């Protein structure tokens, strides 16, 4: 009996040690500069921080709220909806989307096949805003003239230029222009600056 | 004749308009804060800028000096092949890997030295973090310079976990916690999960950045070895999107995925 007790003690010690190792990982590293309540918990209701220029500072690691108010995941699941990444569930329930007829037809068609054929099946990246509706979190880092979003999903990033530059006039240049201007750099196809991917799961086609 | 001349004039106007459109693209957008010569060209030999804490500012869009035209991966890297000595375990691993294993063919990520060997990359410095945005695979990496230690028992990853600290004007970055699924180029050299990479970033002047990689993997190599890369700033342009799986038609023709 005593031997069994000692074995249990060692197990307890091993469990304690392994939990110490876990806390040494960055998954639990305390974020500096976070507003905290007296008990040390993050105070998510504290005022939003501001940058030196007085603008709101969006920097931080974010994850989506489950659904917009008025939607209920259980009701959705009961009606056969398999995902909550559809844009609609992040909009008020009475909102409607002013589709062009061709776009609505495409949307219905995608809906009817339950999203089969989505780009993500081929490990192609999610677009905007789907990348922010996925369960994995994303990090916003705000700098002078540039805000970046680092997505956990696909390990991809996005740059938002806030230095006053105009949007590109012709963001899908021909091979000739690329070759002449940038030599060996890769040519990638775009469509009005946005890939022809689904905007969100079961999604709406970009214009 | 006159009509032909007018046609020429219209052609000339068309070309002018088209070139204006091209210059409005971000591939050619003038970057702010770049020292320039009297004729407006960027002065890449100006002194390296410094951040408010006095350290060199590594931020910028960089590209390797060696042109990405070489078909032989070895020629992309400055290293001494004689310094690379495999252990017995390393030899066996390299034999297996060279037979039939190429993660890049499946659009899996490249090792750290390769990521900066061909395509441009952007360094951004934030308080406590240096972020590297790689054009290759449109992926990123975070280097923590806030004094934290490397994780003791990390979940293995393709990019590892990186912490940095300044030694004089050099940013020294220690990275570990890799999986063992990757090669180290040059030469499809394998590594294990014991791999440590020490990078030394030095911005020589405004337009030149050197990175020295020390590869330390005692399971695979008998001693650490180094790779050097020289990069220059590319002003007035931007990173492009890179989606490896786009229009993918090769996978079904591939045979074997052995390691």
Verbal overview:
The complex is a heterodimer of chains A (207) and B (259). Chain A has 207 residues and is α+β, with helices and mostly antiparallel strands. Chain A has a four-stranded antiparallel β-sheet with strand order 1-2-3-4, with no helix packed on it. Chain A has helices at residues 2-23, 73-78, 101-112, 130-133, 175-182, and strands at 60-62, 138-143, 146-151, 157-161. The relative contact order of chain A is 0.12. In chain A, strand 3 (146-151) and strand 4 (157-161) form a beta hairpin. Chain A starts with a helix and ends in a 25-residue tail after the last helix. Chain A has a domain at 53-170 and 197-207. Chain B is of the alpha+beta class and 259 residues long. Chain B has two domains: 1-30; 60-253, no CATH class. Helix content of chain B is 15%, strand content 27%. Chain B contains three helices and twelve strands. In chain B, the strands form two sheets. Chain B has a nine-stranded mixed β-barrel with strand order 1-3-4-5-6-7-10-11-12. The relative contact order of chain B is 0.20. Classes of the chains: A alpha+beta (207), B alpha+beta (259). The A-B interface holds A 21-22, 24-26, 29, 32, 122-125, 141, 143, 145-146, 148, 150, 154-157, 159, 161, 163, 165-166, 168-171, 173, 177, 181-182, 184-186, 188-190, 195 and B 21-22, 24-29, 32, 67-69, 107, 109, 119-120, 124, 126, 128-129, 131, 133, 135, 137-140, 142, 144, 146, 148-149, 151-155, 159, 161, 237-243, 245-246, 248.
Give a nutshell description of this structure.
The complex is a heterodimer of chains A (207) and B (259). With 207 residues, chain A is α+β, with helices and mostly antiparallel strands.
